Backbone:
């Protein structure tokens, strides 16, 4: 039995996702006023922002980064004023990571940038956006489970 979706269709889908990613890239020609981050820093920052209070080990595991690479990114994010290390109130030997107000402001501007770019591209025709977001989240989850 042939697959329901051809390899060519899947490859084209991936290419479209990459093209969209380049268009909403915060370092591109329409860059918002945000703190510049490397790809690894952005990956770590995204996780800390969505999971405040996570430990450095949990961040490394969740992002599939080697602990040394995660540590380098965290040190840089702390130096940029984006992440704050706090002692776990239940275990003084453990560190918790939290986004700072600077990080929250930068992320807010980034999200506004993304929303504006996508809203303009859709020109008011946002039908199907929720279904597309659900599909992309399923793909993201499926890719992470396989890695």
Residues:
């Amino acid at each position: 039995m042939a697959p329901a979706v051809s390899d060519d269709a899947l490859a084209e889908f991936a290419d479209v996702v990459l093209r969209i990613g380049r268009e909403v890239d915060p370092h591109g020609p329409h860059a918002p006023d945000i703190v510049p981050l490397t790809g690894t820093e952005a990956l770590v920052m995204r996780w800390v922002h969505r999971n405040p209070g996570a430990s450095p080990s949990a961040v490394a595991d969740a992002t599939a980064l080697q602990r040394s690479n995660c540590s380098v990114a965290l040190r840089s994010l702390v130096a940029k004023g984006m992440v704050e290390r706090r002692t776990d109130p239940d275990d003084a030997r453990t560190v918790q990571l939290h986004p700072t107000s600077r990080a929250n402001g930068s992320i807010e501007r980034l999200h506004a940038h993304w929303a504006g770019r996508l809203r303009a591209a859709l020109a008011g025709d946002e039908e199907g956006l929720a279904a597309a977001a659900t599909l992309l989240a399923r793909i993201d989850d499926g890719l992470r489970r396989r890695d």
